[in-house]
Design brief:
alpha/beta; Diaminopimelate Epimerase, Chain A, domain 1; four-stranded mixed beta sheet; 9 helices; 4 strands; 60% helix; elongated
Length: 301
């Protein structure tokens, strides 16, 4: 070792050695983080090629798969019969002629024209492309033009996808049914001049509203049982718990119904469920907890 280097090392002392170790550690940590980041990017973020099954086949341009005639439906996955495709083409052309909105359908599996559909269909802000691809967890995807968001917000398209594209709906109605039903819902909203939610009330969604209505009624019934002999209904407790049962019955029990359908039958059923739950909970609480409290000389209201 050169004399000057020895002298610097002797005068640097243990502090310099510590800083050097930290510097080496810092370089090692940065290398480790960089390596992990690169591996994670390759694992999660690297796009799959068009020939790989399960990759996003629409992420490239293949105009050879485009039909040789103008059509609003490109059915590469053969999800529709010839009759269904012809009827859908007629319907979508009529919607465009009447309203100016372009509704287009692309079904794909292992082949897709990719970005070539933009020029083929002349897509713009007034266009909607429904992409049906069964390789993902949800059959349906939507390429929505900016002008459509003024009529139907982003939450509408999320609900539309989850309602008609989930695997249970596709299993019960088929891919063709999921495609046509989703487009029917869009057409209804375009005729109305826009929607905040998807029209129609599925059976499972109504059951959920019924359950929340019944729970709200149970809250009211247990709150209303008398705590004192001179009371028949404890209105103070009912009002105290009103934020809870109003949300359960009004917001979650009736709100999803009145915003999606004009049918009064599910409303009547939920009201009856709410009232019946109140009566049952009131009688149970009165004959159990209420009797015990009154036998002990009454509770504090």
């Amino acid at each position: 070792m050169a004399p000057r280097e020895q002298d610097r090392e002797q005068h640097a002392g243990p502090e310099a050695g510590a800083w050097g170790g930290l510097h080496r550690l810092d370089r090692g940590a940065r290398a480790l983080v960089l390596g992990l980041s690169l591996a994670l990017a390759l694992l999660l973020g690297a796009p799959a090629g068009p020939g790989l099954p399960g990759g996003p086949a629409y992420a490239y341009d293949n105009p050879d798969l485009l039909p040789d005639h103008p059509t609003p439906v490109i059915d590469l996955a053969k999800a529709l019969t010839d009759g269904q495709r012809a009827a859908l083409e007629t319907k979508l052309n009529a919607i465009e002629a009447d309203t100016g909105w372009k509704l287009r359908v692309l079904t794909q599996y292992d082949r897709t024209p990719g970005l070539a559909i933009r020029e083929f269909w002349g897509l713009d802000e007034r266009s909607l492309v429904l992409i049906a691809d069964p390789r993902g967890g949800n059959l349906l995807n939507f390429n929505v033009g900016d002008a459509l968001f003024a009529l139907m917000p982003r939450t509408y398209w999320v609900e539309l996808q989850t309602r008609f594209g989930n695997q249970y709906y596709v299993r019960d109605h088929g891919e063709d049914g999921a495609i046509t039903d989703a487009l029917d819902a869009v057409a209804i909203c375009l005729e109305r001049g826009g929607c905040q939610v998807v029209p129609g009330l599925p059976q499972e969604q109504w059951l959920l509203t019924l359950v929340t209505s019944i729970i709200g009624g149970l809250v009211v019934g247990f709150a209303a049982y008398p705590r004192k002999p001179e009371h028949k209904v404890e209105w103070a407790w009912v009002l105290l718990l009103s934020p809870l049962w109003v949300i359960l019955f009004g917001v979650f029990g009736l709100g999803p119904i009145v915003t999606r359908t004009s049918d009064l039958l599910p409303v009547a059923r939920n009201v009856l469920g709410f009232a019946g739950a109140i009566a049952v909970a009131y009688l149970i609480a009165q004959n159990t907890v209420g009797k015990a409290r009154l036998a002990d000389g009454g509770g504090e209201g």
